[in-house]
Amino acid sequence: MLDLDQQLVVITGASRGLGAALARAFGREGARVVVNYYQSRDRAEALSAEIGARALAVQADVRSAEAVTAMVRTAADHFDRPVTTAVHNALVDYRFDAEARETVDTIHWDDYHAQLEGSVQGALHLLKACLPGMRTMETGRFIGIGSNLVQDPAVPYHDYTTGKAALLGFVRNVAQELGGEGITANLVSGGLLDRTDASAATSDAVFDIIKQNTPRGTVTTPQEVADAVLFFASPWARAVTGQTLIVDGGLVMQ
Questions:
Q1: Active-site residue numbers?
Q2: What is the 3-state secondary structure (H, E, C) of the chain?
Q3: How far is 140 from 125, CA to CA, in rounded Å?
Q4: Taking a C-beta distance cutoff of 8 angstroms, is the pair 58, 75 a contact?
Q5: Confidence class of residue 97 from pLDDT cuts 50, 70 and 90?
């Protein structure tokens, strides 16, 4: 088990939105942080500079095993230590727009396939790239970013929610298989976040509905979700694996 300030953390899709909040949170706690990006190079490099010498921006498409492996190798070489914490946050080509979403009548398998590639294929590539280093250190943390829509599909984003449900299955199998090696796997599931690029198309009316139906009367922020991810990465969560923590202010209760 490593304290946060001893960890090398790779965060996929970290150049903006929740990913950027995750990078800042780990940086604040003294971790070494890899700010992964796919296309947003300027944003990733600016964020890395903001965090400081403990951050490094690295390009990789999570759908490419070779690119992810190269990213993890670059991180280990740069910081002279293995990656021990992997946070899979990348979201492939998706915007939350309740009015313009695909319905069961219009959606195609290609839409599902795209989200499964991002959610599950990306998670698999990231974990497999990091496993050798985790095993060397005899400790590891894999944390996926899920969605409370899996538990309560208030807006039926068919492809997105199915991808996140599949990620939950992936996490539970990893937890079962790798627990004996000191490697945990968990999921942090937020709701609609206030406010990110992905939720920019969401109307104010939808945000108001969430506020009215949430016990706190607020919409969850990326920073609040990031704090929950820090818990799973920390030694405090050493006995927690295969779990989903819903961070949405109580909108979905289980």
A1: 160
A2: CCCHHHCEEEECCCCCHHHHHHHHHHHHCCCEEEEEECCCHHHHHHHHHHHCCCEEEEECCCCCHHHHHHHHHHHHHHHCCCCCEEEECCCCCCCCCCCCCCCCCCCCHHHHHHHHHHHHHHHHHHHHHHHHHHHHHCCEEEEEEEECCCCCCCCCCHHHHHHHHHHHHHHHHHHHHHHHHCEEEEEEEECCCCCCCCCCCCCHHHHHHHHHHCCCCCCCCHHHHHHHHHHHHCHHHCCCCCCEEEECCCCCCC
A3: 15
A4: yes
A5: confident
Cα torsion angle, 174, 113, 85, 148, sign: negative
- The side-by-side arrangement of strands in the sheet containing 140-147 is 55-59, 32-37, 8-11, 85-88, 140-147, 183-190, 244-247
Domains in the chain, please, with CATH? Answer: 4-247 (3.40.50.720)
Distance, CA of 187 to CA of 225 (rounded, Å)? 11
Closest CA to 147 of 88, 197, 200, 93: 88
Of 14-18, 94-98, 128-132, 159-163, give the lowest mean pLDDT range.
94-98
CA dihedral 179, 181, 183, 185 (to 10 degrees): -30
Q: What mean pLDDT do residues 222-226 have?
A: 96
Measure the CA–CA gap between 195 and 165, rounded to whole angstroms: 23
- Contact indicator for 83, 6 with CB cutoff of 8 Å: no
Q: How far is CA 127 from CA 46, 70, 237, in A?
A: 26, 13, 19
